[in-house]
Amino acid sequence: MIAALATSGLFAAGESTIGPTLAVIVGTGMAAQWIAWRTQIPSIIALLIAGLLLGPVTGVIDPDALLGGNLFPLVSLSVALILFEGGLDLPPRELRNTGIVVRRLITVGAVISFLIGWYASREIFGISNQAAIVLGAVLVVTGPTVVGPLLRFVRPAGTTGPILRAEGVLIDPIGATAALLAFEIVLLDGANEAILKVAGILALTIVAGAGIGLLAAFVLDEALRRFLIPDQLIVPVTFAFVVATFVAANEVQEESGLLTVTVLGMYLARRDTSTVRHVLEFSESLRTLLISALFILLAARIEADALRDVLLPALGFLAVMVLIARPLTVLVSTVRTPLTWRERVFLMAMAPRGIVAAAVSAIFAIRMEAEGVADADKIVPIVFLVIIGTIVVYGFFAGPAARFLGLAEAQATGVLIAGAHATSRGIALQLKEHGIKSLLVDTDPYNVTRSISSGLAARRLNILAEDAAHNLDLRGIGRLMAFTSNDEVNALATARFAREFGRREVFQLSPGKRRSGETGVPSEYLGRQIGIDGVTYSTIDDRARQGWKARSTEAGPDVNTAVDNDLFIPLIRIIDEQMAFLCRNDALPVEGIVIGMAAPSFQRDLDNAAAERVEAVEAVEAVEAVEVVEAVEDSTPE
Q1: CA-to-CA distance for 460 and 438, rounded, in angstroms?
Q2: 143: nearest Cα among 278, 262, 321, 272
Q3: How would you class 615 by CB atoms within 10 Å of its CB: exposed for 0-12, middle for 13-18, buried for 19 or more?
């Protein structure tokens, strides 16, 4: 069907077909994101494959014919919005905790990466020195468009995630400026003229980029603080500021707009208010849409013939960038830092190139060709092969590397339990018996101490603390169970950690009802409610006072009878070491293990059944032992 569409010219450029083509791009992007989620592969891999299929393989989409000269301005504006969201999602605490490493990576590390890229590209591809200089500068960038999806897929523990996220956001404007400086340098003849030109560009970039960004951020921040912008206009006005400042900065000094929007986002991130979080939530959705569309557009415009000419040398160049440039960059940038060797190795294993490198290389390649610079036409295919190669290498190997280094786990099946009271501890112990990880969080030191003394992982921490997710070791943890006595805290905890785990994996107790019969928390603010019939904390507490305890047993008629007689409250099902919470209106499991709260009489039944099983096993073993002895005696010659 795709081939038929391509040959029929349905998606050729034209005013009447832009709508259908954009629908195909967006729809394919969302389908690729969904497939990546279902198959547990990095989303950028799926998007790259989708773009190659729609572009060079089938010819369904031709981005240059579709958008013409508007393609790269739209790409640049989209990157600006993504960088703004990246800056907005860089809390000051992350920069404080990772500051020295990030500063080195985007300064000294960037210089090392540039020098190696420059020399290697000149020697391996045999291109002109001028083209190699610009290529080395372009490949300095990594970017949140590729690093962010990979980090969400791998979810490394410790400071490596914040470091890579900050590097990706901050290196993009630096890389774009470096490419501009490299372009200007290769066009100049005298060294003195080059120095003056570079100094002027740097000064103007800092003044225009940082200055306009700070000014716009201050104005917008004051307007938000004084409630001069109505709630329904906060998001659109914020994005209007982003677009306006990006364009204004680029008018003053080209390629300084990326620095402007990054500064704007980082300034607003200082204010951890509900307004900023609302903008961030919308920005995250927009970022996913933009990344999907951009990857497909830029992958679709790759020309197979141009790639073929530099394919073999590109493999050697990719090996140099992955195995030499990145490790050396990290090695120098992490000298005398508290990072462990495992964290340093993981930083070496993560430096994918993305959309910014593709856009900047295309822009400057066109300008260099116009200036008659030798081998300028080879820059874009080389950059695209590096993008494809780094995405494939880091996309497939970053996860296994993190797991091998002990910074991540293969499957995040564990549970973060908010509330470490006796029932929570009992459930955690039952999960532990079946090989499922748990982490209890409570503000009560007694509960935390009792949890640790029972052999459970526990932290004294407010689950609603601003940096709770950053301070917790969430390796192997993929869901939340809000089990506190406060319904509001449970609801807020599920709302906060839905961003970390997804709405599907946040669970809580059902809120109790007031005397009026209404619940204290509206249903739209609740996570998924635990218990087939809904379980409130008051129910848990009352049953615990009556001697009910968390127990596990095999699913079957006995469990069904106990539930019918109000002797057992099923909460969790485990099949093949995979757990799932039993939620409202779920059916009772017919196989696997069921964990729940058992009445004292049902506990005795379970203990008796367990004792009978032990006796039966011991009896069988005794019979087998007697048979072995008799067999030995029979085989012994008299």
Answers
A1: 15
A2: 262
A3: exposed
3-state secondary structure of 51: helix
Residue corresponding to tokens 């190795």:
345
Q: How many of the other CB atoms lie within 10 Å of CB of 311? A: 12
Residue 442 backbone phi and psi in degrees, to 5? -155, 155
Q: Which amino acid is at 385?
A: L
**Cross-strand partners of 574:** 579, 593
Q: What is the largest CA-CA distance in the chain?
A: 108
Whole-Å CA distances, 213 to 94, 239, 258, 287? 21, 13, 10, 20
Mean pLDDT by 10 residues, the chain (638 residues): 44 59 89 86 82 85 80 82 81 72 91 94 91 91 79 82 86 84 77 71 85 91 86 87 91 85 85 66 79 84 77 91 94 91 92 82 82 86 88 87 83 88 93 91 93 92 81 85 91 88 89 62 81 85 92 89 90 86 85 91 86 71 66 62
Q: By CB neighbour count within 10 A (0-12 exposed, 13-18 middle, 19+ buried), where does 624 fall? A: exposed
In terms of Cβ atoms closer than 10 Å to its own Cβ (0-12, 13-18, 19+), residue 13 is: middle
- Asked whether 391 and 320 are in contact (CB, 8 A), the reply is no
Helical residues (DSSP H) of 371-421, grouped into ranges: 379-404
Using DSSP, state whether 550 is helix, strand or coil: strand
Q: What is the Cβ-side half-sphere exposure of residue 526, based on CA atoms within 13 angstroms?
A: 20
For 571-578, which contacts have Cβ atoms below 8 Å and span 24 or more sequence positions? Answer: 571/427, 571/530, 571/531, 571/535, 571/595, 571/596, 571/597, 572/427, 572/430, 572/431, 572/596, 574/434, 574/436, 577/413, 577/434, 577/435, 577/436, 578/413
Torsional sign, CA 103, 109, 113, 114: positive
Helix H or strand E encompassing 553: strand 549-554
* Alpha-carbon gap, residue 582 to 593, rounded angstroms: 12
Q: What is d(CA 427, CA 425) in angstroms, rounded to the nearest whole number?
A: 5
Q: Which residue matches tokens 């192997």?
A: 476
H/E element, 459: strand 458-460
The pTM (predicted TM-score) of the whole model is 0.77
CA–CA dist 12, 60 (Å, integer): 8
- pLDDT value at residue 246: 92
The number of residues making up the chain comes to 638
Instruction: Determine which helix (DSSP H) or strand (DSSP E) holds 275, and give its type and residue range.
Output: helix 274-300
Count Cβ atoms within 10 A of the Cβ of residue 207 and give its class: 0-12 exposed, 13-18 middle, 19 or more buried. middle
- CB neighbourhood size of 579 (10 A): 19
509 contacts 584 by C-beta, under 8 angstroms:
no
- Going by C-alpha positions, the residue among 182, 96, 90 that lies closest to residue 144 is 90
Residue 575: helix, strand or coil by DSSP?
strand
List the alpha helices (DSSP H) in 301-340. Answer: 304-309, 311-320, 326-333
Taking a C-beta distance cutoff of 8 angstroms, is the pair 135, 121 a contact? yes
Closest by CA position to 167, among listed 353, 425, 389: 353
Phi-psi region of 254 (alpha: psi -120 to 50; beta: other; left: phi over 0): beta
- Residue located via tokens 């077909």: 17
DSSP reduced 3-state for 218: helix
Identify which of 347, 536, 517 has the alpha carbon closest to the alpha carbon of residue 423. 536
The burial of 308, by beta-carbon neighbours within 10 Å (0-12 exposed, 13-18 middle, 19 or more buried), is given as exposed
What's the rounded Cα separation, in Å, for the pair 552 and 593? 7
Percentages helix, strand, coil for the chain (3-state, rounded to 5) are 65, 10, 25
